[in-house]
Design goal:
This protein is an alpha+beta fold. The chain contains four helices and nine strands.
């Protein structure tokens, strides 16, 4: 069952998929329809899952699941990954590669592979205060508080 992302409780499970490029406005409109249809039908062992989504910066796909009603099973998580893989093919993008880093450069969102980002840290092209996106957050509360933070407040600090 599709619900408003903002209505999800703070302990809702979160999945963040970062894109290697910004989606166009037309793609965002299509994504909203596709994701809404998927979440409307998303189930675990026949039980309807209450889930919502956001598309921050037209660059990320964020799923939120209210686990107080029903929890995701292995099969339902597999279904969501399969859905995301389908989006990768449809839009010719990367969404599942966790070895990449997204961060802010001024008003823009940059996307680099981890090796390149490490070089940027070494060359001081990014600073400890560079805003990074911590896609390892697990709950909606963590997403709201710790997703978009200075590098020193994320797992990225180990690269300093």
């Amino acid at each position: 069952m599709l619900i408003d992302f903002n209505a999800l409780p703070d302990d809702s499970r979160i999945w963040v998929y970062q894109c290697n490029r910004t989606f166009t406005e037309d793609e965002v409109a299509e994504l909203k329809v596709r994701i809404s249809a998927f979440l409307e039908e998303w189930t675990a062992h026949g039980a309807q899952l209450q889930a919502g989504f956001q598309l921050p910066y037209n660059r990320f796909i964020v799923f939120g699941l209210d686990q107080n009603e029903s929890t995701a099973s292995g099969c339902s998580i597999d279904a969501s990954v399969h859905f995301i893989q389908g989006l990768e093919k449809t839009y010719d993008v990367e969404l599942l590669d966790r070895m990449n880093v997204s961060f802010k450069q001024g008003k823009f969102i940059a996307y680099k592979d981890l090796k390149e980002f490490k070089k940027m840290v070494k060359n001081k092209s990014v600073s400890p205060n560079t805003i990074v996106f911590n896609n390892l957050v697990h709950t909606k509360q963590e997403f709201n508080e710790f997703w978009e933070v200075p590098m020193t407040e994320s797992w990225h600090k180990r690269l300093l």
